Amino acid sequence: MPAIAYLECSRCHAHLPADTPQTVCTRCKDQPAGALYVRYDLSHLHGTSPREVVGDGDSPWRGMWRYHAVLPDVEPVTLGEGWTPMLHSRRHPGAWLKEEGANPTGAFKARGLALAVTMARHYGLRKLAIPSAGNAAGALAAYAAAAGIEAHVFMPRDVPIANYVEVTAYGAHVTLVDGVISDCGRMVAERKQQEGWFDVSTLKEPFRVEGKKTMGYELVEQLGWEYPDTVFYPTGGGVGMIGMWKAFEELEQLGWVKPGRRPRMFGVQSSGCAPVVKAFDDGAAASTAWQNPHTAAAGLRVPKAYGDYILLEIMRESGGMAVAVSDEDIFASIQDWAANEGILLSPEGAAATAAYAQLLSRGVLDPSDRVVLFNTGAGLKYIDVIASALHLKAPGQT
Ligand SMILES: Cc1ncc(COP(=O)(O)O)c(C=O)c1O
Ligand SMILES: [Zn+2]
C-alpha cells in the first residue's frame, strides 16, 4: 500500500498534507472551497501488469482492498465491502448491471465510508457526523460501530424505514430532520465545532471519493481490463462518478488500461429533483439549488451537489450526458427488472435502468453498446417504499 504523497485541491490544485485530518481546500480564494483528491507516488507500479499487483483469490486482500496497491497504507476497518457482482443482463446483450446492493449495509456507500472510517481511526478521531439521505448514515453507523467510534447521523424524517432501523441497531446517535439532506448538512455544520464532531459529509473530506474509486477499478477489471462504452450512474452528490473518473485517470497513468477510450458517463436523476440535469442542459458550470425536491429515490433527493462542477466537467469531457427519469418510470423499471431478470433494484438503481431504456428507445444508444448500469443499493432496503408503490400491505395487516 502506498503512502499518501499529498491531497490536491480539485479547484485551485493546491497541495495539502495528509498527516492530519483535512476537510476541503484551505487555499481556495473563491467559495465554495474545492474538494480534495488523494494523491500517491505510484511510479513504482508503472510498467507492472495489474495481475501482478491486484489481490486475487489467494490474497489476504479481499473485496475492494484487492486494490490495496492504490489505497492508503493503513490498517483497514472492513466488513467485506466491494468486489460486487457484475451481472450480464438476460435481455440486453450490451448491458451489465453492477450489483452494489451486495455490499455490507446493502449499498455502495459502504466503500466510501469504510475508507473514511479507516482513516478516521488512523487519525485518532473519536466522533464522526454525517448528513445523509439514509444509506450513507447506515454505512457510517456500521463502520463506526466496527471501529469503536461514535457516529452522529442526521437524516430526513421520511427516510426509508430500513435506514432508521439499521442506524438505531448500530448504536448511532440519530437526529431525524424535517427537511432534506441539505437541511441535515446545515445542522451538522452548525454544531460540529462545539460538539467536537469530524464532518464526513460528501466531498467535505477526501476519503469517501477514494473508497468509491474502487468501483471504477472493479468495473474495468470485471470487463477484462477494458472500458465499457457507457456508464449509467444514479447521481445525488455524485461521489461515485467522481471516484470512478479518478480511477480511470489512475488506470491510464499506471498503464493498466489504454488511454483515449474512457466511457461516456451518464448521470441520472429523478425529474422531481434534477439540478445537475438542468445545469447540463443549460450549459452551466455549476447547478442551482432545486426548489421543492421530491422523489421516492431517496438518495437522489439532493438539491445541490457540492461537487456539481466536477460532475458537469466529467459528463462533458466524456461525451456523456445528464438524464432525468420520472418516479413512474423508476417503479416500472423496478417491476420490469424484478420480473424479468430476478433483480430487485433500489429506486436509484432503477433510475439508471429506466434511463438506459429511455435512451435505447430514443435511439441515442444502440443495443450493442457496452453499458454498465449501477444498482447502487439493494431493493430490500426500500421495502416500505416499493410496497407503497405496488399498493401492497403487510400480509395480515387490514
Ligand atoms: C442507493 C443510492 N444510490 C445513489 C445515491 C446517490 O449517491 P451519490 O451521492 O454518490 O451520487 C445514494 C445516496 O444516498 C444512494 O443511497
Ligand atoms: Zn483550492
What report would you give on this structure?
The chain is α/β, with parallel strands linked by helices. The chain is 36% helix and 16% strand. It contains twelve helices and 13 strands. The chain has helices spanning 50-53, 109-123, 135-147, 161-169, 181-195, 207-222, 239-254, 275-282, 308-318, 327-341, 347-361, 383-389; strands at 4-9, 15-16, 36-40, 86-88, 95-99, 127-131, 150-156, 173-177, 198-199, 230-234, 264-270, 321-325, 371-375. It starts with a strand and ends in a 9-residue tail after the last helix. The structure holds pyridoxal-5'-phosphate (PLP) and zinc ion (ZN). Residues 107, 109, 133, 135-136, 202, 234-240, 299, 346, 348, 376-377 line the site of pyridoxal-5'-phosphate.
SSE arrangement:
Elements: E1 4-9, E2 15-16, E3 36-40, H1 50-53, E4 86-88, E5 95-99, H2 109-123, E6 127-131, H3 135-147, E7 150-156, H4 161-169, E8 173-177, H5 181-195, E9 198-199, H6 207-222, E10 230-234, H7 239-254, E11 264-270, H8 275-282, H9 308-318, E12 321-325, H10 327-341, H11 347-361, E13 371-375, H12 383-389
Parallel strand pairs: 5-13, 6-7, 6-9, 7-8, 10-11, 10-13, 11-12
Antiparallel strand pairs: 1-2, 1-3, 4-5
Helix pairs in contact: 2-3, 2-6, 3-4, 6-7, 10-11
The chain binds pyridoxal-5'-phosphate and zinc ion.
Pyridoxal-5'-phosphate binds next to helix 3 and helix 7.
Helical proportion, percent range: 25-40%
Strand content: 15-25%
Main sheet record = 6 strands, mixed
Spatially, the strands of the biggest sheet line up as 4-5-13-10-11-12
Write the element-wise H/E pattern from the N-terminal end onward.
Answer: EEEHEEHEHEHEHEHEHEHHEHHEH
